[in-house]
Amino acid sequence: MKRAFLLVSVFSYLLLCLPPQLVCPESVFANGSRQQGPMKKTSAELSGRVNRGHGSDQIRVIVRPTGAWNDSLDDAVQQGGGRVVRRFNNFKSQVLTMSAQAAANLAEREDIAYVALDREVRSLGHISMTTGADDVRSTAVANSGRLDGTGVGIAIMDSGIDPNHVVFNNATGRSRIVANQDFTGENRTDDPYGHGTHVASIAAGNGMVACGRYIGIAPNASIINLRVLDSNGVGSTSGVLSALDWIITNRSLYNIRVLNMSLGMPAIESYRTDPLCLAVRGLVNAGIVVVTAAGNAGKDLSGTKVYGRIHSPGNEPSAITVGAANTYGTDGRDDDSIATYSSRGPTRSYSEDTDGVKHFDNLIKPDLVAPGNKVIDAEAENNSIVTQHPELDAGVSNQSQRKMMYLSGTSMSTPVVAGSAALIFQANPTLTPNLVKVIMMYTAQPLAGFNMLEQGSGELNVKGAVGLANLLRTDLTNDTPLGDSLLNSDPPAPQSTISGYTFSWSRGIVIDRTYAIGTNLITKYQKIYGLGKLLGDGVITGDGVITGDGVITGDLTMISDGIITGTQIMTSNGVITGDGLPFLNVSDLLADSLAEGSILGDGVITGDGVITGDGVITGDGVITGDLIILAQMAEVDGDNTSFMPVDLDLNALGCSY
Predict the structure, then answer these.
(1) Most buried of 58, 167, 224, 522 (most Cβ within 10 A)?
(2) What's the pLDDT score for residue 640?
(3) Does the structure show a pLDDT above 90 at 547?
(4) Which one-letter DSSP state was computed for residue 313?
């Protein structure tokens, strides 16, 4: 009952308190009266583009006047260097082309009601395009044709999967869902809740709806449906553990190489003792990449940025923990940022000694980020999420087997990474989970202005990761000597070009409480890449005191020379890992107990946010789909990255609804 009351309260608040530019009151007085603030007259995408220095970009906007369109407005458009490209017979709005700054200036006029971007509908799925997955689709792979996940099993641990949705079929119309198991006690494996179907299609949807506009990352991978969340989207730790146990037993039968966990619970207990984290470690040690959601608790109800709310099992160091990036609806990556709701590190799970002193894990998480905002993908038939929020239906089709919906959250960014791991394994099946993780982090794009506790190594770059995986030796084992050659050729240029935008790789990885940089990460074999190892195993931290020349010394039995580990959590300048401005000392993370006045004390401001601790988030052992009402309603800075097929005639394009 308490949980139900809390959810209703949160939902009621979010319905009332959308972004300030929409409906939130500017202030609430003690007597309950509210003073309405002025409404913004530009969309968040337009304002964001100008604020990020892209005011000179030529764009198309839809401008709505307060009254009838008149000659004065035509003159203003012309003076601003713009022109009208479409007029409507039954609407006052006009479609213009002009610079982003000129459009923002036009919105300042009293006779203009609102200016919004004219969003494009694209012929390819946005996520697969902006991550670079489309660029590697034609890559030839020995014995399996093109690079599309063929032969690789992805386990989706979620609320079930709608078996009748066409996105889960192969080219011959047969289902790619090769196994179904229920761990909820409801004796069903379909998806009455609606979360798991959407997640599975992001990882492995086939693109058979709307000419492939919403294709998944690994569209021909095998899907293993493990239902651990019930009809209300709730499960238990024991149910998840049973599913993890099932995977270990059946991993060879279905070639399960990747597990997607878009679920979690508050991380209270240290990863060293948390049974969920320990079980995840067992899967990783068995050769399975486990991809987990960071959580959607990056800000509190007042909108304040908070740190320390990584979910369990996302606090497990062997997992790939994924935060959410906001792409602002563009395939180009020059305007990408971190979604405000995406949970930030450090991990605040802890153990308690006999004196009652809490020792916090304080690990850097997430490991990287991926697009997760307003993602359109498969909609399970009659699912409760869309039933309760019909506005989440994307309007793509009226046929139940082809319907699509949109959701936001790290639940959506997690399967982007899981699908990418399947492509990497198809390209090089011999890799260990640690090497897959290193490849993803090393080739990621650091996003300028965001620190490592927000983005890890940066935004996923599938094109770069798959390209690098193709160059790695296929005969590596735990017995490979430290420092042996890791590549079959010279190292590649550390940059990628996606949708015409060229960016640098991070060239670094986050490790526990620090980071490592150096080309030897990809040119020489490191013992930390082997099965049964953690990437942080080779980092010597001692008693938490950093001495010497400002770097943390590595264990030369595990990490070769030529690799540097840093002493600062950095705010990136958008070039490579380690560049930018210091945000937090690593020594503060190493000091795990809460001494009075510690920078990591509960409620103490650190940099640009508030660190939260065990007194803020409490857990009752309930596992939930990592999808809060905030993300369901896509109420995130007005971040609009959906591609709604408005005015799109699919029949004219030869497509099926």
Answers:
(1) 224
(2) 39
(3) no
(4) T
Instruction: Classify residue 93: in a domain, yes or no.
Output: yes
Q: Highest mean pLDDT range out of 154-158, 586-590, 598-602?
A: 154-158
* Residue 110 lies inside a defined structural domain of this protein: yes
pLDDT over 90 at 293, yes or no: yes
pLDDT score of 182 more than 80: yes
Catalytic annotation on 626? no
Band (pLDDT 50/70/90 cuts) for residue 239 is: confident
Question: Could you give the strand order of the β-sheet that contains 605-606, starting from the edge strand earlier in sequence?
Answer: 306-307, 609-611, 605-606
Share of the chain above pLDDT 70, in %: 78
Q: Are residues 303 and 199 in the same domain?
A: yes
Note down the domain range covering 54.
Answer: 44-117
The SS3 assignment for 77 reads helix
Query: Catalytic residue among 126, 165, 195, 198, which?
Result: 195
Residues 79 and 216 in one domain: no
Which tokens sit at 180? 């179904």
Domain with residue 111: its CATH number is: 3.30.70.80
* Residue 187 clears pLDDT 60, i.e. is over it: yes
Residue type, 488: N
Residue 266 CA to residue 273 CA, distance in Å, equals 15
* CB 188 within 8 Å of CB 227: yes
| Residue type, position 382, single letter | N
**Residue that finishes a domain, picked among 59, 91, 117:** 117
Known active-site residue 270? no
> How confident is the model at residue 634, as a pLDDT?
39
Residue 576 falls within a domain, yes or no?
no
Catalytic residue among 135, 158, 182, 579: 158
Residue 404 has pLDDT above 70, yes or no: yes
What are 496-511's pLDDT values in tens digits? Answer: 998 889 999 999 999 9
Q: What is the CATH number of the domain that holds 595?
A: 3.40.50.200
Q: What is the pLDDT of residue 612?
A: 56
Give 327-376 pLDDT, tens digit per residue: 877 778 888 899 988 999 999 888 777 777 788 899 999 999 999 888 88
Q: What is the C-alpha separation between 603 and 162, in angstroms, rounded?
A: 43
Structural contact between residues 209 and 656, judged by C-beta atoms closer than 8 angstroms:
yes
Query: Which entry of 201, 411, 420, 457 is annotated as an active-site residue?
Result: 411
- 329 and 387 housed in the same domain: yes
Q: In whole angstroms, give the CA distance from residue 250 to residue 226.
A: 12
3-state secondary structure 589-612: HHCCECCCCCCCCCCCEECCEEEC
Number of domains making up the chain: 3
Same-domain status, 332 and 437 = yes
Q: Is residue 257 part of a domain?
A: yes
Asked if pLDDT for residue 40 goes beyond 80, the answer is no
Max intra-chain CA distance, the chain: 79
Distance CA 346, CA 589 (A): 8
> Is 195 known to be catalytic?
yes
- The answer to whether 373 touches 127, Cβ cutoff 8 Å, is no
Distance CA(439)–CA(48), nearest Å, equals: 31
DSSP 498-523: ETTEEEE---EEEETTEEEE-THHHH
